[in-house]
């Protein structure tokens, strides 16, 4: 059910039947790898406490893989839109303003994937650790403060862990969805691009 939800709801709807089957193995692998690592990272004993998706090196590799798949398998129209986009001539010649912006965008997309996943997973774990540490901090103020902080800290920790389970699914879904969108833009053919433009601005096209 989970595979069908991701494949039908995200991959197939975005990439279509043909490209969906082509890229589904990679995208589903990313989804389940991130999901499992997120959930294992909630276990506060080693190696679960290592929290792999809270390590920017891991998220950087995942983003780099999406970068490679997107650009190496990108269609001719994708590269044409980068080096000679459909904008007024003065924006791309003699100063390659749009080309610089488009090339910069190639690298900002995977960077956003990397930082978004890392920051969300690391942030959740830092909050849980902080709440647990409050117990030991208030222990210095006596038994009454320790007892009060113990109840509050455990209650908030359980709440944050439950929230982190939800976030684990959401972050895996978001990474897969954004990767699918980036790949879809690189797989778009010229006639598909024109159809999309006509669907968005029919009046302007007719004029």
Which structural category fits the helices and strands?
A: mainly alpha
Mean pLDDT: 83
Radius of gyration from the alpha-carbon trace, in angstroms? 23 Å
Q: What is the helix/strand order? A: HHHHHHH
Task: Summarize the main sheet.
Answer: none
The portion of residues assigned to helices is: over 70%
Number of strands: 0
Put simply, the count of helices is 7
Structural description of this entry:
This protein is mainly alpha-helical and about 210 residues long. It has a domain of about 140 residues. Helix content is about 80%, strand content about 0%. It has seven helices and no strands. The longest helix has about 45 residues. The radius of gyration is 23 Å and the shape is elongated.
Notable traits:
single chain; 207 residues; mainly alpha; 81% helix; 0% strand
């Amino acid at each position: 059910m989970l595979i069908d939800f991701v494949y039908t709801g995200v991959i197939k709807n975005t990439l279509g039947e043909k490209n969906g089957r082509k890229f589904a193995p990679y995208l589903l692998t990313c989804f389940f790898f991130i999901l499992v690592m997120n959930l294992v990272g909630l276990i506060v004993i080693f190696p679960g406490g290592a929290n792999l998706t809270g390590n920017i090196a891991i998220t950087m590799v995942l983003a780099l893989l999406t970068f490679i798949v997107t650009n190496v398998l990108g269609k001719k129209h994708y590269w044409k839109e980068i080096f000679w986009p459909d904008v007024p001539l003065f924006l791309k010649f003699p100063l390659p303003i749009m080309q610089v912006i488009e090339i910069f965008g190639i690298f900002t997309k995977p960077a956003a994937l990397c930082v978004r996943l890392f920051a969300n997973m690391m942030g959740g774990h830092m909050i849980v650790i902080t709440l647990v540490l409050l117990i030991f901090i208030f222990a210095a103020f006596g038994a009454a403060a320790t007892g009060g902080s113990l109840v509050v800290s455990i209650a908030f920790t359980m709440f944050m862990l439950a929230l982190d389970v939800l976030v684990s699914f959401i972050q895996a879904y978001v990474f897969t969805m954004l990767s699918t969108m980036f790949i879809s833009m690189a797989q778009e053919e010229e006639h598909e691009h024109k159809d999309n433009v006509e669907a968005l601005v029919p009046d302007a096209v007719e004029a």
